[in-house]
Amino acid sequence: MTELEKEIEYTLYQLMELEIEEEIVQMGQVFAKLLTSVQVAQLIDYKLDVLVDPIECLPETRVLLESLIEVKGRFKRRRKLLTHRDILKVWLRKNATFKSEFLPRMF
Fold it and tell me: Were 62 and a residue from 9, 32, 37, 57 both cysteine, which residue would form a disulfide, CB within 3.0 to 4.6 Å?
């Protein structure tokens, strides 16, 4: 789990930099690779349903899983197609580092 946590943290910083550079396509590719790793760790399934209790996970993993749960709930009510970009937006907004360090640099 600590390896996955490190991968999530590394990917988070990578995605923040790509967000600033507005590299949307590359962001989606990097995030898709991360979701694959999370699925291999059996924390989510192929439908992006969370299979574990996020509270039992390490901090960055917990935030990612909580973001998935939140986004899936929103889109189920609206009957819209869920995209990586939608998950990414919620995950970045929930992250304290993104809000305090990267978001101010974007404006």
Answer: 57
For residues 88 and 68, the model is more confident at 68
Cα dist from 66 to 32, 62, 77, 78, 87, whole Å: 17, 6, 17, 19, 10
- The DSSP result for 36-69, as a single string, is HHHHHTTSB-TT--B-S-GGGS-HHHHHHHHHHH
- Which pLDDT score, from 0 to 100, does residue 106 have? 56
DSSP string, 5-22: HHHHHHHHHHHHHHHHTT
pLDDT confidence of residue 82: 66
